[in-house]
Amino acid sequence: MILIASPTPALRTRWRQGLHTAAAIHEVGDRPTLERSLSVLKPAVLLIDLELPDLNPPEGLHAVLQVNAVTKAIVMTGAATEPEGVAVLKAGARGYCHRDLDATLLRKAVDVVQKGEIWAGRTLTSQLLEELTARVEERDRELAGRVTARLQRLTRREREIALLVGGGASNKEIGNKLGVTERTVKAHLTAIFRKLGVSDRLRLALLVNDHEPLTLSS
Amino acid sequence: MRPITVLVADRRPAVRAPSLHRLRHDPGLRVVGEARTGGEIVAVTAALKPRVLLLGDSVRSADLHVMLGLVRRKSGRTRVIVVGHASAPHTLVDAAAHGAHGWLEATDSPALVSRAVRAVDSGEAWLPRHLASDILARLQALAPRDPVGR
Q1: Which run of H or of E encompasses A192?
Q2: Homologous superfamily of A2-122
């Protein structure tokens, strides 16, 4: 079952004809009917026009897409932009494309989202990536802020090793540089992780770089 | 148009060689250096600030993530493509979350290397299409109480 939601009858007709599918197609023209249909019919795919009255994206769209967990939604827009695309995907849509998408691509979009993939432009994926990286960095920085004071608890040797990890060196490289075994480096690292309350060398490396200058003399 | 500067980094010469060969025969690209070990990769990237870093996955994943984090801090405009070996989807998403802009498999054709370098340099992500779904899921998991990202 595919559900089509748009206030414009001509658009609904065009999409229905374009889909040219054996699956049942149901059409709605307003938000209350859409929500009832999503709840009762649980369609596999929803084509939803961003112009639907009272949709209020992205918050309202997010609420609509929460009605059931099985329907994969493709948002259809009049003027595709990257910020709008990112917002609708984050609101739970699985696809984002222009209302005038041709019939072949529309069918492909439906196939792609049914397989669990995302239908959106390459640059949108890039935007999602940037945002993901920024979120991960933000989380790391928050963690770093909490452990600043703990840096003072390291011994001189531990600071030396922390600095080398911060420079990107592996345990083997550190061992060679300091003239100790890899095993000794690991033992120091375990102590450093415990003192700083960090779980791995990534956090340690970022921490060291966020708190430069971490010096051996202090 | 100035050529895109590229740094090729992997401890294994056999992995660096095909990329280097391809890149050196592409007039739109310029290889500015090679690096082998973790410390060297970070130092050379910081010094040369290449537009694209081709980074082999010859280190364990935690070290790869460290490297990506450090490259981002020391040369924020450098776009990174990781060159992997039969990589699992979660490995790719992890690397992407830590700052990789693209992913190539060592078995990919040399022609793809040039295309990938150009794509990431122009701001695109060079990742398998099906990963967009995993990236979105990871993004949503990081902000459970803020689903629409306001």
Answers
A1: helix A182-196
A2: Response regulator (3.40.50.2300)
pLDDT in tens, chain A (218 residues): 999 999 999 999 999 999 988 789 999 999 999 999 999 999 999 999 999 999 998 999 999 999 998 999 999 999 989 899 999 998 999 999 999 999 999 999 999 999 888 998 877 888 888 888 888 888 777 766 666 667 778 898 998 999 899 888 889 999 999 999 999 999 999 999 988 878 788 778 877 776 654 444 43
Which of A119, A112, A67 has its CA nearest to residue A93? A119
CA distance, residue A148 to nearest chain B CA (Å): 18
**Its pTM surpasses 0.90:** no
Chain A residue nearest residue B98, CA to CA = A133
Chain centroid, CA A118 distance in Å: 12
Subunit contact A128:B136, Cβ cutoff 8 A: yes
Read off the DSSP letter of residue A74.
E
Residue B136 near residue A127 (C-beta atoms within 8 A): no
Is B77 in contact with A217 (CB distance < 8 Å)?
Answer: no
Closest CA to A113 of A127, A132, A93: A93
Distance of alpha carbon B99 from alpha carbon B86, whole angstroms: 20
**ipTM value for the complex:** 0.77
Q: For B107, which DSSP code?
A: T
CA distances from B123 to A16, A21, A79 (A): 36, 37, 21
Q: How far is B95 from chain A (nearest CA, A)?
A: 9
| CATH number 1.10.10.10 given to A151-218 | yes
Tell me whether A83 touches chain B (CB under 8 Å): no
Which residues of chain A form CATH 3.40.50.2300?
Answer: 2-122
**CATH 1.10.10.10 segments of chain A:** 151-218
Strand partners, B29: B4
